[in-house]
Amino acid sequence: MTIALLTNIISPHRIPLSHQLAAMVGHKNYRYYYTEPLHSERAELGWCGNECHEWCVPFSESDNSIIKEDLFVSGLRRWDLLLSRAGQGLPSIYASERWFKPSFGFWRIFVPSYYHMAAKFVGLLSSFSPVYYFPQGVHAARDMARLCGLLHGDWRCLFRAPKLAFEMKPCGRIWLKNRGDDKRYCLDKMRMWGYFVEPSQYPNPHSPIHNSTTLKVLWVGRLLHWKRVDTIIRAVGELARPSSNSNSNSNSHSPITLDIYGIGPEENRLKKLAAKYGDHIKFHQPVSISEVRKLMKEHDVYVLASNGYEGWGAVVSEALEEGMRVIGTCEAGSSATMLPETNLFHAGDWRRLANLLASDVPQIGIDNWSSKEAAQRLLAFYEFAKEHFA
Fold first, then answer.
1. pTM of the predicted protein model
2. pLDDT for position 44
């Protein structure tokens, strides 16, 4: 079989899955089409361009081979390509992060051009055609189900998204939590999806390489307001206070440290906040992608504290690959989709985060969310779609 992926850039969040797919179907039968050259800022962080992968090629509008591949996965809103393939009975997948991120959220639907674009896709998704939507996270699924529900006459969706349940795995089925007509919300044409990272390069990814009794917490990324790094600083800082340690339960970890790697517009504000807690919190310059994985082996817990603007958050997958214990927010895509409720807190709730850090948070593995597992499930889904629309 042949597979084509279309996206804007060559991204390390998509390359690991592409490696697996190319190995499974043959390098000559896989194409990663991109529309933009690699940005210099990303190259400095270790992102590779098309010279790293023979199956990465620039997309050309004159090249119609993409509408003839057996399976097409698009990260771009190219409904024309989906429609052309649907006419030939060829399975196509549109995969995306959530459409209605805060703060403007669902009210985007009242912009005429946005409504027209959205209605066209819902029409494709609702038709009896091999067009599917792969939401990258449960929030993306809820956004799309809300849109489909509204356009199919459920006016309650104007005010809230339907509550969903789903299989916690790539290509997992999605359904209404309270049961009902799944087709009204296009849930029969959706499957859960995400981003998939490189496997660990360490021989024993489930064992940190440091021997300290200190609980070492890690955060890596751009210091932006919606990343809510202040929540982690407050939680760790309060746990590090002598008074906090004396009142904590017997399972609490003491001492505790936080290492923050990155720069951004929030840097000065966060450093002032951290100064209240002495030397328990340290800031470091950004590091390359490969160096991040090494840092994960030197720490115990990774915290993703972002609000709902974090569509996915591939760093959660990286931390799970390296055997870290991971805590994340209910609002971020990856943590809400991959982590159990025992490992979740609401964005900004530093008290809940402090309680989680002071307890024995369950350690889970990457399991179903590895790039190899995702590739296998995608090929199995293709067989299902091909047979269903034969």
1. 0.92
2. 57
